[in-house]
Amino acid sequence: MFIHNKRLQYTVRVGETNPALASLLLEQFGGPDGELAAAMRYFTQGLAEDDPGRKDMLLDIATEELSHLEVIGSIVAMLNKGVKAQLSEAALKEAELYRSLTAGGNSHTQAILFGGGPALTNSSGVPWTAAYVDSRGEPAADLRSNIAAESRAKIVYERLIAITDDPGIKDALGFLMTREIAHQKSFEKALYTINDNFPPGKLMGVAPFADMYVNTSQGEGDMTGPWNDGEQWTRVDDLDEVMPADDGDGVPTVKLTRAESTAATKLAARTQSVPDEDVQTGADLGAGPGAGRVTGGTDLGSAPSIAKAVKPAK
Amino acid sequence: MFIHNKRLQYTVRVGETNPALASLLLEQFGGPDGELAAAMRYFTQGLAEDDPGRKDMLLDIATEELSHLEVIGSIVAMLNKGVKAQLSEAALKEAELYRSLTAGGNSHTQAILFGGGPALTNSSGVPWTAAYVDSRGEPAADLRSNIAAESRAKIVYERLIAITDDPGIKDALGFLMTREIAHQKSFEKALYTINDNFPPGKLMGVAPFADMYVNTSQGEGDMTGPWNDGEQWTRVDDLDEVMPADDGDGVPTVKLTRAESTAATKLAARTQSVPDEDVQTGADLGAGPGAGRVTGGTDLGSAPSIAKAVKPAK
Amino acid sequence: MFIHNKRLQYTVRVGETNPALASLLLEQFGGPDGELAAAMRYFTQGLAEDDPGRKDMLLDIATEELSHLEVIGSIVAMLNKGVKAQLSEAALKEAELYRSLTAGGNSHTQAILFGGGPALTNSSGVPWTAAYVDSRGEPAADLRSNIAAESRAKIVYERLIAITDDPGIKDALGFLMTREIAHQKSFEKALYTINDNFPPGKLMGVAPFADMYVNTSQGEGDMTGPWNDGEQWTRVDDLDEVMPADDGDGVPTVKLTRAESTAATKLAARTQSVPDEDVQTGADLGAGPGAGRVTGGTDLGSAPSIAKAVKPAK
Amino acid sequence: MFIHNKRLQYTVRVGETNPALASLLLEQFGGPDGELAAAMRYFTQGLAEDDPGRKDMLLDIATEELSHLEVIGSIVAMLNKGVKAQLSEAALKEAELYRSLTAGGNSHTQAILFGGGPALTNSSGVPWTAAYVDSRGEPAADLRSNIAAESRAKIVYERLIAITDDPGIKDALGFLMTREIAHQKSFEKALYTINDNFPPGKLMGVAPFADMYVNTSQGEGDMTGPWNDGEQWTRVDDLDEVMPADDGDGVPTVKLTRAESTAATKLAARTQSVPDEDVQTGADLGAGPGAGRVTGGTDLGSAPSIAKAVKPAK
Amino acid sequence: MFIHNKRLQYTVRVGETNPALASLLLEQFGGPDGELAAAMRYFTQGLAEDDPGRKDMLLDIATEELSHLEVIGSIVAMLNKGVKAQLSEAALKEAELYRSLTAGGNSHTQAILFGGGPALTNSSGVPWTAAYVDSRGEPAADLRSNIAAESRAKIVYERLIAITDDPGIKDALGFLMTREIAHQKSFEKALYTINDNFPPGKLMGVAPFADMYVNTSQGEGDMTGPWNDGEQWTRVDDLDEVMPADDGDGVPTVKLTRAESTAATKLAARTQSVPDEDVQTGADLGAGPGAGRVTGGTDLGSAPSIAKAVKPAK
Amino acid sequence: MFIHNKRLQYTVRVGETNPALASLLLEQFGGPDGELAAAMRYFTQGLAEDDPGRKDMLLDIATEELSHLEVIGSIVAMLNKGVKAQLSEAALKEAELYRSLTAGGNSHTQAILFGGGPALTNSSGVPWTAAYVDSRGEPAADLRSNIAAESRAKIVYERLIAITDDPGIKDALGFLMTREIAHQKSFEKALYTINDNFPPGKLMGVAPFADMYVNTSQGEGDMTGPWNDGEQWTRVDDLDEVMPADDGDGVPTVKLTRAESTAATKLAARTQSVPDEDVQTGADLGAGPGAGRVTGGTDLGSAPSIAKAVKPAK
Questions:
Q1: At E289, is the pLDDT very low, low, confident or very high (cuts 50, 70, 90)?
Q2: CB distance B60–A33 less than 8 Å?
Q3: Complex ipTM above 0.90?
Q4: pLDDT at residue C314 in the model
Q5: Kind of pairing between the strands at C2-5 and C212-214
Q6: Do D186 and C266 touch (CB under 8 A)?
C-alpha cells in the first residue's frame, strides 16, 4: 500500500516561469526514459517477483521513482504557473498570449490542452505509452533492462542540465540524475547476485551459432575488435557460408493438405502475373506530354539535378 | 547500401499450417523485442555513430537482424499459407472458415485484415511502434540498451520454443535465439572496450546521492542484499531524512512577475472551493431510494461481500 | 513523497490459477478506466492545483489508486503464477503449454511477452496510453471528468464481478468497485463546493446559441424530453434556419495576399479536373471480361445478393 | 443515414492566413476534446442505445458535432490556404518557405505531410485515436462522460478564443464553444431523467467501504472539506487500519496445483539471488578512475551541486 | 538474406549543420510515407507472395528502400552532428544550447531524447507505427496501395526540396524523389499484368449497387463529372430512394433468445429515461447567479459575440 | 452541414446474436480500411479542396461512408445485444458469462470495456487512429490513395462475407462491398480527368534515375517482367554501379564550424572504443560454469538442435 507526504523528496526552487522549458522537461515526466516509465517498470516487476530480496528492492526503487515523478512534475507546474493563470483568466492581449505559446518547444499544447498542468507526454507531446515498459518476467533479462533504462535516464537528465541555467532547477535535476546512478548500481548488484545469469533464461544456445560473428556489412570501413575477433569468435566473412547457416537450401517450405493445396492453386491462377507482354498502365494514361522527357538539364538554382526537373508550363 | 539474396539465413521447414501459432510467432516479427525492433535499434545507432569499430559492428548486426526478420516472417507466411488461400478463394464453408479463424491467438485479424501475410504486429495485434527503439546517441547507454534488448529477445524465443513441437520451426527458432546470445556478447565487448563507461555520459553525479539507498518500501518483507547494504551504501530507513533530501522545506516554489501574480490571484478567486459548508451534489440528486443503504448483507453467492450489494428491485 | 508498505490495502486470496481470467482483469490494471489511469489523472491534477483543499483530496485519492493498482496487479500475478513457472521452466509438453496459452482472452501475449507479470495493457493487449488521462487544468471541467471516470471504472468492475466466481477475487473486486463509488462522491462534493461552476471556465457563452437545440437527426424516432424541449430550449426543427446559424452565407472565406492568390491560381490550374469529357481509367484497363456484367443472379448460398456475384471462372 | 449540405452551420470568415494558428486550432479538429471525438462518442453510444429518447438525442448531437468538425476544419483550411499553394507551387524562395513553416506551433508537419489540409491530429501533431472515446454502454456512466467531455471542450475553445484576435475566427469559436454548453445541458437533463442513477449500474457497493475516506496523503497541507469530512464520511487517518481494509493479512496468495508448485520451485531455484556475498558487477568493471570519487565540490556555474560533478579530464 | 555495403546508394554532401531542418526531413525517415514504411510495405508483401515475378520485384524494391532509409538517415545525422557533440559535451553555455534547440521544428526532442541520431519519428516527433503499412495480401489491392504510397512519397520529397537550399541535400532528395517515380511505374506495370484486376478480389459486386452514385452532399456546389454522371452511372438525387437502398424499412433488427430478451427487458427498465417531467440537474446546481443571463452584448474587443460573454465579477 | 435520418442506408437483419462475430466485423467499423477511415479520408480532402467538382464528389462519398459506418455499427450492435443485456444485468451464472466472452475473437474486451456497443477498434481491439488517414493535399496523390483504400476495403468485406453464413448480414456486407467498387470507379474517373497526373505534383524527376531498375535482390528467383525489363527500363544488375548512383564516393559528409568540430573531437575522445585489447565483460562475470560449453548435443526431443541446449542442472 502506498502512503504520501506532501513534502517533496527534493526541494524545488524555480527562478522564473518558462513554459517552453517546461515542455522540454516533460521528457522526464512522460517521456520514454522518464520517471513514470521507471516507476512502472519496477512496479510491474515487483508485483510478479517471488524472490524476497529482489521484490523488496524493486518496490523500494519503484516507490522512489514515483517521488521523482512528483519532483519533476512540480518543476513543470512551477514553470507553467504564469501561463496557466494568464491563459485561463485571459489576462493578456490575444497577440501576447499567442506569442507566449509559440516561443518554442511544445508549450502550445501544454497550455491549450493541459492548461499548464504537467502532462504525461514527452517533449514533442507524444502521450506516454506502456510500450515503454519492457518487463519480461525473467530477472536476468529484466535487471539488464533496468540497468539500461537507468543509463538512458541518466543521459537525458544530463542533457537537460546542459540547457538549463536556472540554479534551482539545475540542482533538482542533478539530484534526480544522481539517483539514476545509484539505482543502476543496485540493479547491477542484483544481477550479478544471480549465479549463472548469462545467457539469461534456461536454454544455453545451439553451439555452432553462439560464437559466430557474421560480417554482413562489408566494404570500406570493415573493422575488427573484441566484439568480432579473437579466439572466442568464429568470424564469417564469406556470406555464402551462411546462406543458409544450416545444411538446407535456404528456401521456406510448408506441407499443405490436399484441400489447402487446391485452394492455393486457384489463388495462384486468379492472381498470376503475365509477365511476357508489356501492358498499358494507369501511369501511361496519366502521363502528360512532358512525361516522356523527364529532364535533368541546366542549372536553375541551388541543386543541379533539380534544376529543370519541372513539368512544362502549359 | 543493402543487397538481398533470396536464400534465407536459415532454412525454414514447416510441418503443417497453423494460423494460431503464426499469430503467436508474430511476437518476434512485429513485437517489442522482435527482429524489426532489433534491426532498427542498431541501424539508427549505426548511422549516427562516428567510432569506426562500433559503426561497423552496429551495421553488421542491424543487417543480420533484417535477415532474421525475413526468417521469422517466412515461418509465419508458411503457417498461414493454408488459411490465406482458403479465405481468399472462399474454399471452405463459411462456418468452417469462421472456426479456423477463431481457434485461438489473434489469427482472426491476421487473416481478415492482412490476408495471411506476416504483419508487423505483436501477438495481440498491436502494431509495431518506434517507441520500442530506445537509441539515445550515447554509446555507454546505447550498448547497455542493446545488451538488455538481446536478453529480452533471447527469452521470448525461449518461450516460443517451449510451446512449439514442430521440429523445423523449433530448429529455426533455436538458431535465432542463439544469435541473440552471440549479439549480446558482441555488445558486451563493445561496452567494456570504452574506458570509464560508468556512469554513462560526462557528469559523475552529486556525491551524497550516488551511494544513498532509500528504503521507501517498508513493513514485513524488508530485506538486505548487496544492492542496498554494505560499505558502499548509505542506507536511509528513516524517511523523514529525505523529505526532502536537501536542506530545504520540500515545497515547490516559483517567483512570479507582478502580472503573473495578479492573474494567479484572479484564477484562485474564480475557482476556489468553499469547504466550510456541505453542498448538494449531482450524486445526491441521482441517488435513488436505495442509495442510502449501501449494503453488505447476507451470503448470496460466491463472494460474501457482493452478496446483496444490489440495487433493490423496483 | 511516496512511501510503501508491502501489505496490500485489501487481502488477495485467489482460489486457483487462470491466465485467461488474468488477461480479462488487466482491463482495470492497464485499461482506459483502470487504476493507473485513475492514479495519473488525479496525480497530474494535484501537482498543478493551488487550492489547498482540492490539492489534498487529489493527492489522497491518487495515492489510494496506486494502492488499488497494486491490488489488481497482485490478483493478476497470482492467476498467472502457474503459467509463469511452467512456461519458463518448460515444465509441460509443448502442446500442453500451447493449449494453456490459447484458451481464451489475450493470455498468450501475457505469457509469451510479459512472462506472466501484470502488464500495463487492457484486456486486448493494447498498451496503456496517457491519451486516457483527460486532465485539463480547470477544476470545473476536471472534477466532472473525475466523476465520469469513477462512474466508468465502477461499471467495469461490476462487469468483472459478473464473470468471476472465485470468491476471493470477487471480494477484492467488490472492495475496489465500492471505493470508486466513494471517490465519485468526493469529487461531486468538491465540484459543487465551487460556486458558479457552470458553465465551467470564465466565458458564459453567446446568448442565442446556449439554449438552442438543433434537431439534426429526424425521421421516425424523433423524440422530445427535458433535454430538447421545454421553456429553457429553443428547438430548431427546420434545419435551413441553421445553415448557417448566423446571418452569413455559410461559405468559408479567407483574404489572401496577392502573392498567395497568384500561387493559388497556379495550383488550381495545375490540378484542375476537366469534367466535360469522359476518360479511360485504370479501372477500365484492369476490368476483365466479366467486369461489364456485375451480377446479382440466382441464389447460390445463404445470401441471395452474394449468390453469383463471383468472377466467372476462366 | 447522413445527408450533407455544403453550407456550414456557421459562416467562417478568416481575416488572413496563418498556418501556425491553424496548427493550434487542430486541437478541436483532431485533439482529444475535439469535434471528431465528440461526434464519435455520441454516435457509438447512439447506435447501441435502445431507449428511444436518449437514442434520438445522441444522434442529434453526434450529427451536429460532425457539422462542427466541418466548421473548425474549414477555418484550418482557410488559414492554410496560402502556405498550401505556395509550397505546392514552390512559389517562394526555399528560405522563405522554410521560415514560414518554422514560425511556431506544428505547422511544419501540417504543410509538409498534409499539404495544408486539415489533419486529424492535435496541436502537437499526435494523430487522433479512438482511445479518446470513452463510451461504456451504461447510460448513467456514459452521460457523465458526455457531460465531462463537453466541459473540457468548452474550456479548450475558451483558451483558443483567448489567443486569437481575428474577429471572424473568434466569432465562429464563440459559436462552437456555446454549443458545448448547450450540449452539456442536454446531457445533464438526460442523466437526471434516469431514476436512481447513482451509483451507476446495478450493484450498490459494499457498505463499509462506500463512505470511507482514506487520508493517504498526510503531512503539512492536510485539509478537510465536504469531500472527506462530515457525517456521511468515515475518515481513516491511521493508515494501519486499512493495511488491509479487510480482516486478512494483506498478503496475496493463490493455491497452486502440485505440478505448478513443482515448476515454481524450479524457477525460484534457477533465479534465486544470493544476497549474502558482495559481487563484482558490470558497473564495477566499467567505472573509470574517477568513479570512486563522485564529487560535489566547488561552485563552477549556476548550480552548486552540479559544479564539479564532471568526469575528470584524461 | 541481406548484405550491406557501407557506401551509400547516393552520396550525401551537407553544407552546414541545421537540426531544425533535420527534424523536418525525418518525415521521410520515420513518417507515414517515409522509407521505412515503404521498405516494410514491400517486404511484408514479398514474404507472402508466391508469384515469382511479383515476389522478386517486391524484394528488389523493398531492399532499395532500405538503402534510401540509409541515405535520408545519413543526411539527418550530418545535419545534427554539431548539436549532438555540443550537447553531449556541454560545449556551449546553457542559454545558447537552449536557443539552438528551440529554433523551430521538433529538433528539441531529437537532441534531448535521441542525442542527434536519426529517430524513427515523423516531423512532429510521432513514432513510426506499423499502422502505416497497409499490405492486405491480395495483389490487386496491394499494388494499388503501393502505387498510391509512391505517389505520396514523391509529393513529400517535392515539398522538402522546396524548402531546402542546400545543394547537396537538394541533390540527394531529388534522387530519392525520382526513384519513387520509377517504383510507381514498376508497380503500375505489375498491376496491369494481372488480368481482370478490377474489381480486386474474387467477388464482382451486387449488380444494382455497383453503378449507383448517391448524391449525399447537396445544396449549392452540386456538380457533375465523369465520376457521377454519364451512361455508366445511375445517379440518386432523391435520397429517400436509398433510405434504405433495399426493400426493407431501414431499421436494424436481431432475433433474441428468450433469455436474452428477458435480460434486455430488465436492462431497459433499469436505465429508462422518464422524459415527461423536467428535472433538476447538476448544471442547475452549479450555475451561479450569472448563469441565467448568458450574454452577447456590446463590443468589448475584436469579436462582437465574445464581447461580454464573460462571467460577472464577484 | 450534416443532417441525419434514423433510417439506415441498408436494412440490417441479423439472425441471431454472436459477440465473437461482432468483434470480427469491427474491422470495417474501426479498422484501418473501415468506414470511419474512409469517411475521414474523403472529408479532410474535401474540406481543403478548391476544385468544385472534386470537392462535391469527396463530400458526397465522405457522407455516404458515414452512413456505411452506421450500417456496420448497427450490425455489431445487434450481434452484441444479448451479451450486453446479460452482462449488465448479470443474467447468467458467472461461468456462463465468462465462457460467452472467451469464445473467440476479441469479444471479451468489447463486452467488458465497451458494454456491447460498437467500438472504434479493429478486430484485435486496436483503437482507430488517424494514422490510417493518408490525405496529402495533392489530388494526383490523394485520388490514388483513395483508389487503393477502396480496393483494400473491398477485399476486407469479401473476406468477412466468406466467414459469415447469416443471410441478413451477408446481404448487408454485399451492399457495402459493392459500394466500395462504385467509389473506386468514381475516384478513377476523377484521377484521369486531371491532365498530366503522372508523376503527381510539379517536379518531373531527375532524368537518369526515373527509368532505372535496381536489381537489389539477386540469387535464385531473379525474374524479369514489364516492371523491370523492356525498352523503358535501364536495368542495373551490377550493384557496384549504384554504390553510389552518382559520381561521389558514397560517404556522407558535413562541414562543421570550428566550435562544432572541437566538440566533436572531445566527444570522440570520451567515447572511443579501444579495440586492441580484449576485455572482461558483464557477460563473462555472469556466465555460470556451463557457459563455456554451449551445447548442441544429442536428440532430446522434437528438434535436434534444441535437444540439450539446456543449462546443466546444479
A1: low
A2: no
A3: yes
A4: 47
A5: unpaired
A6: no
Closest partner residue to E51 (CB to CB) among A105, A244, A271 is A271
CB-nearest partner of F294 from A204, A288, A309: A204
Q: What angle do CA B40, B43, B45 make, to 5 degrees?
A: 110
Closest CA of chain B from E64, distance in Å = 7
Strand partners, D217: A4
pLDDT of the residue at D263: 95
| E249-273 burial: b if 16+ Cβ within 10 Å, else e | ebebbbebeeebeebbebbeebbbb
- D309 touching F, CB under 8 A? no
Say what the pLDDT of residue F294 is. Answer: 41
How does residue E112 score in pLDDT terms, banded at 50, 70 and 90? very high
The CA distance from A277 to A280, in Å, is 10
Q: Do F275 and A202 touch (CB under 8 A)?
A: no
pLDDT of residue F301: 37
Across the interface, whether the CB atoms of D263 and C202 are under 8 A apart is answered no
* Number of other residues whose CB lies within 10 A of the CB of residue A257: 12
Instruction: Give the DSSP per-residue string, chain F.
Output: -EEEESS-SS--EESS--HHHHHHHTHHHHSTTSHHHHHHHHHHHHHH--SHHHHHHHHHHHHHHHHHHHHHHHHHHHHTHHHHHHHHTT-S-HHHHHHHHSSSTTHHHHHHTTTTS--SB-TT-PBPBGGG----S-HHHHHHHHHHHHHHHHHHHHHHHHT---HHHHHHHHHHHHHHHHHHHHHHHHHHTBTT-BSSSSB---HHHHSEEE--EESTT----TTT-STT-EEE-SGGGGTTSSSS-S--EEPPPHHHHHHHHHHHHHH-B-TTS----HHHHHB-TTGGG----S--SS-TTTTT-BPPP-
Q: Is F88 on the interface with D (CB under 8 A)?
A: yes
d(CA E36, CA A28): 28
Residues in A closer than 8 angstroms to F295, CB to CB, are: 204, 207
Counting one residue from chain A and one from chain D, the pairs whose CB atoms sit within 8 A come to 159
Residue B46 scores a pLDDT above 70 = yes
- Chain D partners (3+ C-beta pairs within 8 A): A, B, C, E, F
User: Residue C292: pLDDT above 50?
Assistant: no
pLDDT band for A310, please (50, 70, 90 cuts).
low
Binding-face residues of E in 89-118 toward A, CB within 8 A: 90, 93-95, 97-98, 101-103, 106, 108-109, 111-113, 115
pLDDT digits (tens, 9 = 90+) for D53-66: 999 999 999 999 99
| B139: nearest CA partner in chain F | F271
Three-state SS at D217: strand
SS3 content of chain E, % helix, strand, coil (to 5): 50, 10, 40
**DSSP one-letter string for D252-264:** -EEPPPHHHHHHH
Hunting for cell 538549463 — which residue is that? A164
Q: Cβ separation of A199 and B181 shorter than 8 Å?
A: yes
Q: Please answer yes or no on whether F136 and E245 come within 8 Å at the CB atom.
A: no
Contact D33 C171 (CB under 8 A): no
In terms of Cβ atoms closer than 10 Å to its own Cβ (0-12, 13-18, 19+), residue A241 is: exposed
Residue of B nearest to A130 (CA): B131
> Pick from C210, C273, C287: which is nearest to E294 by CB?
C210
Contact in structure between F176 and F71 (CB atoms under 8 Å): yes
Average pLDDT over all residues of chain E: 91
pLDDT of residue B208: 87
pLDDT under 70: residue ranges of chain F = 289-314
Alpha carbons within 13 angstroms on the beta-carbon side of residue E118 total 32
The rounded Cα F100 to chain-centroid distance in angstroms is 30
Which residue from B4, B115, B282 is facing E137, i.e. has the nearest CB? B115
